UniProtKB/TrEMBL annotation:
UniProtKB keywords: Signal
Name listed for the protein in its UniProt record: Fibronectin type-III domain-containing protein
Gene3D superfamilies listed in its UniProt record: Immunoglobulins (2.60.40.10)
Record organism: Pseudomonas azerbaijanorientalis
Signal peptide stretch: 1-30
Keyword Transport: no
Domain of life, per lineage: Bacteria
Length: 449
């Protein structure tokens, strides 16, 4: 089933920007390679929290119009995405992740402008460019232990599958991605969900179920890919993901490796400041190859129609997986039902991709909830960790006046101090998972300051 050509790599071919660099190296051109290195461009927004998201990215997308196709609140972040439409009808895409403190991570894919915008809560802003890259070399690692699914899916009756994704990072990888791993992870997940929508794949979507940041950085190699479950063992046990993606700091050089993924499979790795690489590698996890150069009778390939490319066929800034069901701006199909239909691969492999791990379940209740100490009007409580918890909610029940429990606080630690307390009341704690599933209550304690 697989062309087991061995482990190869994804590399940068010569994009337009790289040709500028090459010209500089050869002394043929005096222009400095200002944007190819990913050097951030900085500016500052005043009163950033009062600014609309659109005000923050307006300069970067002009003169394109944002055609928003999704907006939702996830983990406290507002996540939006859609296409960018240029006056000449050419298209790109925009993904925005806005936090309550006003900070913004935006993936901007406009013709001629490809990268990520990062605005922090103080208004400091930088744009990290993501130069176009091609994928001339095989970065998809054949996986002899797994089979790509090929059972036809009736999209009219299809069940919707959710693929739970753990985003793993090295510390250096977080810095390269702009500094906010949570926002970056949500942006990458939404990028793929938007591309699935663009490609008319409606029976599968990705969901972020956890983030783990590790101290060490790792190179993009088959050893790192093979060891991913060890590197992120803690996160895999805690968050029970179907798919794990490793985001690492990679010094990108022409011809260098920027990502690798099993094909098919449940894990991949890539340069953390390249969201398009995540979309590319997870397409390999789904079971699709690059370009069907020989036109073989196999639909599990990306596509180049002479004008437009899909993401797996040397189209890093494409916003599509190959599909014959969608036409590009030139009226040409973005796939071929016989030779290039990655959208079909996604539909057929949705059940496999979503079933590596059991469905997400609530954390167990925290054990050993106790009063630790008290003062004139405070009480400090402590409890034992619940393995899947990312935070805890503390409740108070004023038994005498109101039997309904009231939440009095959150804690990410294993203690909580209730303040401004008088009189006797009953207290307990609940554990909350990354996606917000809540445990049953712990044992309760009746206490007074
Ligand atoms: Zn690839």
């Amino acid at each position: 089933m697989f062309k087991t050509a061995g482990v190869c790599f994804i590399r940068r071919a010569f994009s337009g920007l790289s040709l500028v660099c090459l010209a500089v190296i050869l002394g043929a051109c005096a222009h400095p390679p200002t944007t190819d290195s990913g050097e951030p461009e900085s500016r500052v927004f005043e009163n950033v929290a009062s600014k609309s998201t659109a005000e923050l990215y307006a300069d970067l997308i002009a003169p394109a119009v944002f055609e928003r196709s999704s907006s939702k609140v996830i983990d406290g972040y507002t996540v939006e995405s859609g296409k960018l439409r240029m006056p000449d009808k050419s298209e790109g895409a925009l993904v925005t992740v806005r936090s309550v403190d006003g900070s913004l991570t935006a993936l901007i894919n406009k013709p001629g402008q490809f990268g990520s915008l990062h605005v922090d809560s103080k208004g400091g802003s930088q744009f990290i460019s993501e130069p176009e890259t091609n994928t001339d070399f095989e970065d998809a690692v054949p996986n002899p232990n797994e089979q790509v699914a090929t059972a036809p899916v009736d999209s009219a009756q299809a069940e919707h599958f959710v693929v739970d994704v753990l985003m793993g990072y090295s510390k250096a990888g977080v810095d390269r991605a702009g500094g906010d791993a949570h926002a970056d992870a949500l942006a990458k997940i939404e990028l793929v969900n938007m591309m699935l929508r663009n490609s008319l794949v409606d029976n599968v979507s990705l969901r972020l179920v956890g983030i783990q940041v590790v101290e060490d950085n790792y190179p993009i190699t088959s050893e790192t890919l093979g060891g991913l479950r060890t590197i992120f063992a803690e996160g895999m046990a805690k968050f029970e993901p179907d798919v794990t993606y490793g985001n690492f700091a990679v010094d990108i050089v022409p011809g260098g490796v920027i990502g690798m993924g099993w094909m098919p499979g449940r894990s991949a790795i890539g340069a953390s400041n390249r969201p398009s690489t995540f979309a590319h590698e997870i397409g390999h996890n789904a079971g699709s190859h690059h370009c069907n150069d020989n036109g073989v009778n196999n639909y599990r390939f990306g596509y180049f129609n002479g004008k437009s490319r899909s993401i797996l066929c040397k189209g890093p800034n494409s916003i599509y997986y190959s599909t014959p069901a969608v036409l590009d701006q030139y009226g040409l199909p973005l796939g071929n039902a016989v030779t290039a239909d990655t959208a079909r691969v996604w539909r057929e492999n949705a059940a496999r991709l979503s079933s590596y791990a059991p469905p997400q379940s609530p954390p167990t209740a925290p054990g050993n909830f106790v009063k630790v100490r008290s003062s004139a009007n405070t009480i400090t409580f402590g409890w034992n960790a619940s393995p899947k918890a990312v935070r805890y909610e503390i409740y108070r029940v004023n038994v005498a006046s109101d039997p309904l429990p009231k939440k009095i606080g959150d804690s990410t630690a294993l203690t909580f101090t209730a303040t401004s307390i008088s009189g006797e009341a009953l207290y307990f704690v609940k554990a909350v998972s990354f996606i917000g599933l809540v445990s049953v209550p712990s044992n309760s304690v009746v206490a007074r300051p």
